[in-house]
Design brief:
single chain; 263 residues; 6-stranded mixed β-sheet; 8 helices
Length: 263
């Protein structure tokens, strides 16, 4: 295996912030020694979250086992998740900040899965991943990130699972959706009428030569069709079909961004 030096597009403040979280956690559980010191563990975790490298590659670079690398990453992710604001608090803070609106959007975090794991496959993104819902300020700062759901879950269902729209409506916040097909609270999604095919036309008004009330109705000269004025003729039965129209209605890694926001 070959080794090389690489750079992470993150500030030293981010590394210091994560290192402090790890150091306080180790002190709270009474851990005196580990294979990697807090600063190196923090660097390993940031490299995993930012670069998306496999645990085997990270373990080789930091001279630990793949199991140890997996344990370090999951430990720090849980510590960071515990510090994230809950939905009610995030909405309340957004209300107190006086934001004119908030942005609601969903994102897919890619994961390594085999083809048989269908619940994690997103048909929209054509890859396996986890669905996350995000609330952001007008400036794009993250206010809240939901838990993870399988990638096959639709964004609208994910919003319903976490109660995002209901919470925003209760707080009276205006929602600006990223996707044009998602409606803001209290508004219906835009609909698009499908144009009528050329062969589907409205019945024309009766002409002087057409059958009147006292005349016998004649059939069309073309087999399999009927006169266009039959359905609207004054002498037609009450249960005759009325003319109708043809129209139908149609619908980055957030963890690292949150770290920058928390500093």
């Amino acid at each position: 295996m070959l080794f090389y030096r690489a750079a992470l597009p993150l500030s030293s403040k981010t590394l210091t912030y994560v290192t402090g979280i790890i150091r306080r956690h180790l002190a709270s559980i009474g851990s005196r020694w580990r294979k990697l010191p807090p600063a190196r563990q923090a660097l390993l975790v940031l490299a995993c979250l930012r670069k998306g490298e496999t645990f085997t590659e990270l373990a080789a670079g930091f001279e630990v086992s793949a199991t140890t690398a997996w344990r370090y990453v999951n430990e720090v992710v849980e510590l960071l998740a515990a510090r994230a604001p809950k939905l009610k608090k995030a909405v309340r803070d957004a209300k107190e900040a006086g934001h004119a609106y908030v942005i609601v959007d969903g994102t897919l975090i890619p994961i390594d899965r085999v083809a048989k794991d269908r619940p994690f496959y997103s048909g929209k993104h054509k890859k396996h991943g986890m669905n996350l819902q995000v609330i952001a300020s007008p400036d794009g700062d993250l206010l809240w990130v939901s838990g993870a759901l399988p990638g096959s879950v639709h964004d609208k269902k994910a919003e319903w699972v976490w109660g995002v729209i209901a919470e925003l409506e209760a707080a009276g916040l205006v929602t600006l959706p990223i996707r044009a097909t998602r409606a803001a609270p209290g508004r219906r999604p835009p609909t698009r009428a499908r144009a009528s095919p050329s062969h589907r036309k409205r019945p024309t008004a009766p002409t002087p030569g057409s059958a009147g009330p006292g005349k016998e109705q004649t059939h069309s000269s073309r087999p399999g069709t009927s006169s266009a004025s039959c359905a609207v003729a004054p002498g037609a039965p009450g249960n005759s079909p009325e003319p109708s129209t043809y129209c139908s209605s149609a619908r980055h890694n957030p963890v690292l961004t949150g770290l920058k926001r928390a500093q």
